[in-house]
From TrEMBL:
This is G-protein coupled receptors family 1 profile domain-containing protein. InterPro entries: GPCR_Rhodpsn, GPCR_Rhodpsn_7TM. Belongs to the G-protein coupled receptor 1 family. It comes from the Eukaryota. It is found in: Cell membrane. Gene3D superfamilies: Rhodopsin 7-helix transmembrane proteins. The chain crosses the membrane at residues 29-50, 62-86, 98-120, 141-162, 182-206, 240-260, 272-295. Keywords: Cell membrane, G-protein coupled receptor, Membrane, Receptor, Transducer, Transmembrane, Transmembrane helix. Residues 40-292 form the G-protein coupled receptors family 1 profile domain. It holds the Pfam family 7tm_1. It is a multi-pass membrane protein.
Length: 337
């Protein structure tokens, strides 16, 4: 065996030799993150589905991001990575491994480019408001979102797959991905899939916050109030900026570790670093709804209403009416509806 195969075998032995306590701790924490992922993103999609007034153009991009995050949990993290973490092995066949690697790349590219579109949307709404209606109608926004997904599916994993390479299972990461020694794909993928959209996003927010600063300066000098529409736009931009910032805080360590591994053409760090890397990848898909709820009043209101409605339904029981034999709904507090 070559050095890479020796290292993979050693990591598999370390993976299988974990103590029962460590297996329970890692699996329990990962399940907790997945619960946040499933619950929060499902709630976000339900809010969009059931409330017509929430279907604004910025929220169309939020819906796309929530969908990619939810699919990350449904298609890869939940059914594939979690069983591997629990059983200390890859319990599926090679086809499932190839599927996971392809889906991971596709959904990550979709998320990164959706965040970029969200930043561009706020850029035109705040920095270039006269051009906003020209570029951002609901129809054009849908075309942008569909184009992003088409690009992610066709151009994300396809160059790697068509080159004849195969995904491999990394016991330390407990998921399948392309080999670290494939430096050509890393050199091609990181700038194209992360570098370009991240630079565009940073530029947009630099211009947005410059515009906000100028608005504030003009307000203090002239005393002319900023319109309520602009104030709301700034609040939306702030929420999206926090999402972008949180996403990048999760991804910068991931990219750094992967870049170092590619340079050395091996896994250069201890197992704990790769476990943290996988947790960060999953967390980046799990906590966006928390950010919406904390920073966006509309989302917070609809989240609370949705949860109250669910709790009210769960807290109601059906009891027979003794005199007429009919059923009535009795709330847990004892009141009769």
């Amino acid at each position: 065996m070559n050095s890479t195969q020796n290292q993979m075998a050693e990591m598999l032995r370390e993976f299988k030799s974990r103590s029962q306590a460590k297996v329970v701790l890692e699996s329990g924490l990962y399940m907790l993150v997945l619960l946040f992922l499933f619950f929060g993103n499902s709630l976000t999609l339900l809010v969009m589905l059931l409330n017509r007034q929430m279907r604004t153009i910025p929220n169309m991009f939020v819906t796309s991001l929530a969908l990619s995050d939810l699919l990350t949990g449904i298609l890869t993290a939940g059914p594939l990575s979690l069983p591997a973490l629990v059983t200390s092995q890859w319990p599926f066949n090679n086809t499932a491994c190839q599927f996971q690697g392809i889906i991971v790349i596709t959904l990550n590219v979709a998320s990164i480019y959706t965040l970029c579109l969200m930043a561009v949307n706020r850029y035109y709404r705040i920095v270039k408001p006269s051009r906003y209606q020209r570029y951002f109608t609901k129809k054009k926004a849908m075309i942008m979102i569909l184009s992003t997904w088409f690009y992610s599916i066709c151009c994300g994993p396809l160059p790697f797959v068509l080159s004849g390479h195969k995904m491999v299972f990394y016991p330390s990461k407990f998921f399948c991905f392309y080999p670290v020694e494939n430096s050509a794909f890393t050199a091609f993928g990181i700038p194209l899939y992360m570098g370009i959209p991240t630079c565009v996003t940073l530029y947009c927010y630099f211009r947005i916050f410059t515009t906000v600063r100028n608005h504030n300066r003009n307000f203090h000098l002239s005393g002319n109030p900023i319109s309520s529409v602009n104030v709301q736009d700034f609040k939306v931009a702030r929420t999206i900026f926090v999402i972008v910032l949180f996403y990048n805080l999760c991804w910068i360590p991931v990219v750094f570790v992967h870049f170092v591994d590619t340079i050395y053409e091996k896994l250069a760090f201890p197992r704990q670093v790769y476990v943290a890397k996988t947790f960060l990848l999953t967390i980046s898909s799990a906590f966006n709804p928390v950010i919406y709820g904390v920073l966006n009043k509309s989302f917070r209101k609809h989240y609370v209403n949705m949860l109250r409605c669910t709790c009210c339904r769960a807290g109601a029981v059906v009891a027979p009416l003794p005199l007429r034999g009919r059923a009535t709904v009795v709330a847990m507090s004892g009141t009769i509806a």
